[in-house]
Structures are given as C-alpha cells and as structure tokens.
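Thought: the user wants the 3D structure for the chain below. I'll pass the sequence to the structure tool as-is, report back what it returns, then summarize two notable features.
Action: structure_tool
Action Input:
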Amino acid sequence: MCSECRSYDHSIKLWKSNLPNQEKILRKICNQAKKKHKEFDATIPFSGGKDSTFVLYTAKKELDLNCLAVTFDNGYLSEYAKRNIDKTCRKLGVEHVFYRFNPELLNRLYALFIRKTGYFCSVCMRAMAAGITVVADLYDTPLIIHGTSSRTELLGTSAMSEHGSVAHARAVLKNEAIELECRRLLHTYALRRKIGHVLFGLRKRQSLSSYAWLKLPDFFEWDYDFIEQTIRRELEWEAPKEGEHMDCLIHPVQKYIQAKRFPDLDFDRLRFARLIMAGQMSRNKALEKLKPEERESPEDALKLFLNNLKMSREEFDRYVDMGPRHLSYFAPSFGEKMIKAIFKYST
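Observation:
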C-alpha cells in the first residue's frame, strides 16, 4: 500500500470517529446563524452541478436555512446546468442571483491568462470567489457554504493546477491595461467578515461569532451515489451519462491542457483513485471508465473557446507547450502572508 493510501486511511478513521459530533456542531452553527435574523442565513455558491445542488438541498431542507444561491456565469454554462439551476431554485423556493462579467471582457481575461500563465481556469475561480463575497457582503449573510470534499477529491500539486487567489490574479494583471476594467476581480471579503472568520477559527470552528465559511462535506458522509439519487429523486436533477463538470462547456479544454502538459499523468486516473480510496468506486469500474472511446473530446469545446478568444489553435498550443508558468505569478502582500502564517484556515 502506498503512502498516500496509508495517510488517507489514517485521516479518514479520525474523521469518522468524530462524525457524530461534527453533525451536532454544524446544526449548532446553523442555529446560531438563524438567530442573527438576517435577510438570508447563508450564501450558497451554486453551479447546477452535483455537489452544489446537494449543498443547496441540504442547507434548505435538512438544516432549515434561508438560503441565497449565487451562480457565477462564465458565458459557458451548459444547458444541463441552466435547467438544474432553474428547477432546483423553483422546487426549493430559493432566491437566486446570477453574477456575470461582460462576456467580451471575460474572454479577453482568459486570453491574457493563457498567454502569461498557460492556464485560464484561475479567471473563473477568482471571479467566482469575488462574486460570492460581493453578494454575501451585500446581504450580510452569516454563512457561506460550499461542497468541496477533500475525502473524495484528490488535490494535485501547485504545478498541476492554477491559483484562484487574489495575489495570483493581482500579479498577472499588474501593468496590464485591462486591470482598470476588472478591479472587481480582486475583490475580497469586507473587513468585518475577515475578522469573523478569524474569530471562527479561534473558536476551533465549533461556534459562530459572526461569520463563517463552511465546507459541508466536513460534517456529512459525502457519498456520490446517495447524493445523485437524492437530487434526481427530489429535484429532478439531470446530467449527461458520462463526464464530470457537466456545468461548464469548456471544461474539456482544461483537460486538453493537462493532457498536453502532463502526458504521463492522467488526471481522471487520480480522481478515480481518490474515489477508490473512499470506497465509492471499484478498481475495475475505474479502469472501464478510463477506456479511450469513452473519454470526452475537446474538439468542439476548443473550437468554441478559441473562436471567442480570437486565438488560433497553433497559438493556443504554443502557449500551452511553454509549460506551467502560473507559479511565476504569485505575490501575496505582507498582510496576506501574515494571515496565512497565523491562521492556516484563512483565505
């Protein structure tokens, strides 16, 4: 057994032993949020995908929170995502906000980040985070709840993926004319929310003083079969037969970049390995899903994306082949360094 599996088994045993207590802590935090009598108890980042749909369902139906769903529309939302968003919000009676940049500006940002870093998803990650915090601060919601699960999602090294941090975006945009048009990309929490997150951490993330950012999978078993069965049954959620990230039409472009950059490292293989560790997929099933004829083709997505970017395939491939340059663009301020050093949970 490899070191990754041994480490995983050790951490999962500790987490499971504390799970009953974690569920009690979550309900306590939610009750504290409701007692603040804000217009909304929680802001829920909502893409229309499997995880975020289940988070919204659980927050509304199981935790009885008055939720405000927020979707960052990058101009490439799939029809599946749009239908899921509409049906879910209607069935749950949840108010919903779309946050969208000017599409032409967003495509110029994608092109800039590709030229300078070789990646483009960091634009979406940063814009999504900015949009969520803008809306959460506007309505002064005590909680932000999302569905990132470290137990079922295998995180790669920093060289494998791009940053969505303010520091990274600031460094890429520095001395670029477009910076003046998209300063909102660098928006971060209001000071009161930053202080609230620090206080939440000082309370060992077990009691709410004012604000908190929660990962729902920290408090629940995150079983994808159960999640999908629940949202299909209760919300008529739908998705294509195969393919992850069905909410984003250009996700296959990111997979194309990864395949060119790391030809001997299959990212789907890493993802399936994590699900095997979690006991949610068999090795035989993973090998079956990795067969070439069942994989997503990036050609249609690439054509759409590059046409909007006004960039040729040759130019795009040249920037990708230059290697992962995103690590050269990371310049946190002194204050950000101090916060990161003192409070590791803080963003």
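Final Answer: Structure generated. Residues 121-139 form the longest helix (19 residues). Strands lie at 42-45, 67-72, 95-99, 143-146, 212-215.
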